[in-house]
Structure to design on (320 residues):
């Protein structure tokens, strides 16, 4: 039975773009240039040497709101073409999008040092960008190299794609946190135009990173698993998909939690906090987990911004 797909190879490429402008990003990550006139997807891909099946598989994947494992068959696309697409996306995020976002952030908020919240926001962003770089460089260096060996028919020992999949984090979550910190805690100015523009860019980048991770989780990983199985002649591994935990209930912080935040932003370890507040380390860890859930802030840098804005500490006391 034929599965329902939104875009087909005989559709005009311009119609695809008009129905979903984020496909412009997909095009450039496949190396497709503009100026294609009224040509169909197939004609443009053929003329520019791009794997049409894989381009369409990604475009159709992105046209859906919800994804489930197995919705995309490994036979729907070519793994090398998908991997090239992911590599180009990494270059885009690391060398263009995040640096451009940083420049715009500096232009928008006062990072001269006189505005302490602005300085901390920039620091938060820099830590986040470093984290994204680590994430993507790991994929470039380890995962893609591993898959290239599989594609050549070699199965390196001591690694499999399930190991990667079980640890693969949603890299956009901290950006969500940064955006929410700016919206909730950055002091309002008379004119919000520039700030709104930065926020829109962060929303876009957040969405783009989220779909990038989904392509990896729902298309790339299953295709690599399929390849591994082919090489192993039927050997199967248990599914390693992880569910993320969520707690969206906004709850007030207890006095004890505020004390712990103060200690954290002063740079104290869990052990030092436990000793100062006469608690066990286990209790401190539980409090920290509850704080992260209540505030949806998971890093010391984010907590520092929260603590400064809410006057739990002064800037002189801050370690980060
Ligand atoms: Fe990636
Ligand atoms: Fe990733």
């Amino acid at each position: 039975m034929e599965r329902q797909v939104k875009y087909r190879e005989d559709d005009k490429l311009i119609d695809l773009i008009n129905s979903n402008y984020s496909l412009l990003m997909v095009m450039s990550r496949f190396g497709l240039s503009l100026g294609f006139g009224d040509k169909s997807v197939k004609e443009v891909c053929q003329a520019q040497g791009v794997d049409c099946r894989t381009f369409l598989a990604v475009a159709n994947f992105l046209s859906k709101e919800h994804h489930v494992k197995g919705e995309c068959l490994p036979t729907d696309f070519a793994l090398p073409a998908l991997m090239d697409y992911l590599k180009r996306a990494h270059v885009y995020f690391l060398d263009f999008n995040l640096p451009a976002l940083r420049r715009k952030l500096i232009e928008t908020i006062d990072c001269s040092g006189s505005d302490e919240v602005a300085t901390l926001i920039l620091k938060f962003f820099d830590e986040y960008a470093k984290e994204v770089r680590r994430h993507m460089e790991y994929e470039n260096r380890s995962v893609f190299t591993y898959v290239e060996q599989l594609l050549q028919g070699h199965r390196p020992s001591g690694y499999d794609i399930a190991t990667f999949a079980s640890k693969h984090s949603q890299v956009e979550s901290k950006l969500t946190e940064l955006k929410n910190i700016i919206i909730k805690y950055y002091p309002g100015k008379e004119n919000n135009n520039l700030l709104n523009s930065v926020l829109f860019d962060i929303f876009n980048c957040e969405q783009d990173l989220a779909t990038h991770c989904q392509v990896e989780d729902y298309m790339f990983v299953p295709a690599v698993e399929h390849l591994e199985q082919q090489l192993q002649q039927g050997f199967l591994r248990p599914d390693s998909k992880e569910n993320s935990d969520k707690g969206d209930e906004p709850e007030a912080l207890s006095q004890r939690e505020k004390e712990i935040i103060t200690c954290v932003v002063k740079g104290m370890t869990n052990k030092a906090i436990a000793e100062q507040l006469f608690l066990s380390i286990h209790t401190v860890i539980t409090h920290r987990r509850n704080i992260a859930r209540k505030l949806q802030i998971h890093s010391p840098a984010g907590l520092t911004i929260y603590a400064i804005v809410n006057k739990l500490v002064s800037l002189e006391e801050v370690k980060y």
Observations:
- The chain has 13 helices and no strands.
- Residues 226 and 248 are 36 Å apart (CA to CA).
- The radius of gyration is 23 Å.
- The pocket of fe (ii) ion (ligand 2) is lined by residues 135, 139, 168, 171, 213, 216 (CB under 6 Å).
